[in-house]
Amino acid sequence: MSYDKANIDDLLFRFLENEVSEHDITMLNQWFLNDPEAARYYCNYARDYAAMRMQVSGEMEAKEATTENTHEFDIKLWKELAEDERTAPTVEIERPHEAESRPFETIQVVRQERHVSRFSIVTLVLSAAAILLIAIFLRLNPPEPAVAFLLDSRNAVWSGGDELLENGAGIKPGPLSLTGGYANVVLTSGVEIVLEGPVTVDIESDNQVFLLRGAIYSKVPTGVDDYLVRTSGATVVDYGTEFAVDVDDRGATAVHVVKGEVELRSGADVVKHGPVARLLAKQAAAVNAEGVIEEVEFAPDRYVTSIPSDYDIAVLKSKPIAYWRFANYGSPVNEIVSKTYSTVVVGAVSATGSSCLHKNLHYQALNLDGQGGHIAIDVNKQPAVSSGWSYALWIRPELQSASQEEPYCYILSGKGQYGYLRISDTGILEHYFVHGDGTVFCGQVSKKPIEFGQWHHIVVTVEYGQQKNLYVDGVKATDASVYDRIRPAGGLFCEKILVGTGTDPSAAVSESENEDAGKSFRGDISQVALYGRPLSEDAVRELFLSIR
Amino acid sequence: MVDRTKRSTRFFKLYTGVQPRIYSFLLTLVHNPLDAEELLQETASVLWEQFDKYQEGTNFGAWAIAIAKLKAFECLRQNKKRRLLLEDKAYRNIAAVAESVAAEPTDHMEALRKCLNKIDESCRSLLAMRYKKNLHIKEISKITHKTPNTLYKTLRRILESLRKCIERNVNREEIA
Question: Across residues A482-511, what is the average pLDDT?
């Protein structure tokens, strides 16, 4: 692992000024734990920093004596000394005895003749020549300082060498090609960029990036000025923001602004450029191959904003038809697979911090208040598929008041095809379908209750004409022999999936199908994946085990 | 009374001799100037309260650093949820080295005094705003019309120049 001195000094300075970010701390941890010289270097640096503070702030003792509360101790001491001085009896001081004079001894230093061997002279000349050569080499080929660090990566495949595979490695200016996987790179200016392969990018400086192909997502912290992303046909100037830049195969550059404001310029030249467009949050535009700026649909969900977790990767590998991670873009919905379905936030829904999630899930979750807040996903009257379907999600239920008449609350509902998944006040899970007259068919109940306040992985799978299954934490949770097989005439279809409730409140009056399905979920829901096929028992277990 | 006075005088003399080293040690470990200053006071209080146990002729500095170390780790434990902190192992490594650095005889303060006299007025002014008046970097940014990032870079470069200057001075003294 290589560390650039200037960057380390910069990190250490901000560390001592108490102005570090989480990324800085990660990098420092890696440095301290991997470099045996790190602690010594830091201690010497901190000693000089402390000395500078002390010197500049004046003599510490004098300063402390003039300050009241925080320096109580010294004042107390001074007062005590003053009181002693005032009340102390006179003490006679004995005159010290004259020191006995000691005669100086004269020492004769005998000058010795030095013998220099021929071998020493040859060694000296060769050493001098070697130092000179090294100096000339360094002058002609000065070592380039790293302008960025690889903060984190997952399943990353780099082209052009393995040296970048290690997290924490310094990155020098030059092309960087990620053929697969994900990487999180932080520039020494503090700008963070997220890469998803295939992408090729040249980090030109600590504040400037040239995107050759693929897409990058940039997060620019406050206080960093003039960050630029250049492409062959456009320049994006940051004005304190988060945004994605994408270069397609035809050479067009698209920009999607998630937060803040950017300026999109036609042309790669920083100084001379063509037309300009200012883009605010939730706006997108593209410079086409002819250099013309045109408005495009804002679609930030196409880009990864942080490295996917192990669970995300397992889900993506299992090929869902849609997957919602619920990261916060101002609205807590983030669909990362399907571009087809639109989502609407209804009522009180907030995004909780990643600390609430399992350690390997990383992302935010929907926090639902049990008062009707939910997410409605329009699935366009999705027809039933012949082979069946599945969905997987994470939940952390909170116990609702037991005094309510309805002892269940609804986790995920999809009138028709997806049925109703609910949890009782005792922690028992139940999944069922209803007939048009409201009678339940094909219901399944979990054998054991799940624990409130804990995260659980839930999967429902249905194979048309076969038994459906309910899995909790990777294990089948129901007795498959108890209930009917799903075999409705004419198949099933679904218009809308409701995450966190049983019935769309706006349509509740006309809902004869399921009048009692109104009690909403209280707790957290995250990582909802929808499949157009029934997941096998092994696939469900694999999904769950991916977080280990 | 005379004994008390002697005790106070003796303590004060010993303490002022090691105070810069304790502060430096504390700041190295807790990497927060405000916490370091507060811990310096707490360390001094403990040293004064337990000064009776101190055996004349033993290493007062080592004793003071040992107490400062306990205080620093106590502070880090308390701050775990409030601040961004390193891993425990990193702090243990740092503490071990910082103790030996604190024990090393050094002419750094004297060398630094000379070096500070050599820096130009604008740098001196920036240092005074930050470390004498204790202005936050954002307040300095408003006064100087420079971005916080630029100011941090400048402060870091000043420190870098001072460190080089100290090194030159200390080496010269050693050679002399």
Answer: 62
